[in-house]
Design goal:
Elements: H1 12-31, H2 37-43, H3 54-77, H4 79-98, H5 103-131, H6 134-165, H7 168-189, H8 204-216, H9 218-248, H10 255-280, H11 282-306, H12 313-339, H13 346-370, H14 377-398
Helix pairs in contact: 1-5, 1-6, 1-7, 3-4, 3-5, 3-9, 3-13, 4-5, 4-7, 6-10, 8-13, 9-12, 9-13, 9-14, 10-11, 10-12, 11-12, 11-14
Amino acid sequence: MSIEKIKPALPMGEFVTLMALLMSLVALTIDAMLPGLADVGRDLKLENINNTQLIITSIFVGLAIGQLFYGPLSDSIGRKPAVSMGVAVFIVGCLLSMFATTFEVMLIGRLLQGLGLGGPRTVCIALVRDQYEGPAMARIMSFIMTIFILVPMLAPLLGQGILLVATWRAIFAMILALGLLSLIWFQLRQPETLAVEDRRPMSLTAILAATGEIFRNRVAFGYTLMSGIVFAPFLAYISSVQQVLQVQYELGAYFPLAFGVLALIIGCSSFVNGRMVSRVGMLWMVKRATIVSVVVSILFSVWSYRYAGHPPLISLFAFLAILMFCTGILFGNLNSMAMEPLGHIAGIGAAIVGSISTLISVPAAILIGQAYEGNVMPLILGFAFGGMAALLVLYWTSRK
């Protein structure tokens, strides 16, 4: 297929930057707040500091719901109104969280942030697909994902920098400003890419029918379930990593740097996966990554038990580096494997797969995170048991 633009669009550089900014709001909203979680807990007078983890997981609940809503909505009213509506909801959530005086209001604000971010996260991919095809689309998405990968590395550093001169509320102010900037830029510069004659009514029946098809298809459902199981301990890691590295291991202001290195490892694994998957296949990569994560987690749990859940920092960092590398490979393949039988319902199918896997992971991640008591054993065992469960699902899904 030739490299050609399907419809007139912004200049490529501007389009890539705008789409990357919109999609990166998710990672920025999550990761920039990590250095400030302890301060939020103190200011909002939380008795159980583990509850600060809900500031992270509540966003994913909103995202799970938003993904189901905005995809079909954009097919019905157009891409531009759907993205704008999502960013507007996100801005309301930012305001609620920024001025929250109770933890309940904070969680409502974060839920709204996630619900709103479901719009750009889902519809921006459709915007790319509307305008580019074949190698051109792959090239655009590659540029966007390169920027997207950098955000988790830099966001905690940005949050920590703000905390040096202001309070955690200023982090929300920064996120709010970027949300407003992206909304204004998008409204002024991005044209609508879905023609009126190509739109179709939003249908609950279509969503339910697609959901039923996914549950009946062993491949689609199996890899969706496995994706949720794999994501659960990773989400628990994201939710509790500030407590582990910044508090338990007393890294203090060096925490964002350590988190950024681990985020870089995920990006490197995505690059390695892209180079290898065409030669050995997605199933081969998923099997090896899952087995390695299980074996390493079991061995490290024994090692950590010797230290009462407080192993030397260098060994913990090595363990997390291996797990992040394996997780990056799994993320890069499981969603694609779940989508393979769903080509005829690709748009709504992707939204449902993402929503189901997220809703599976959130309760398990909360359980793992809430078990944290100043040692890393719950997190390590979460990766170990999650990996074993994922292997069982993989065997059931991939057998002939």
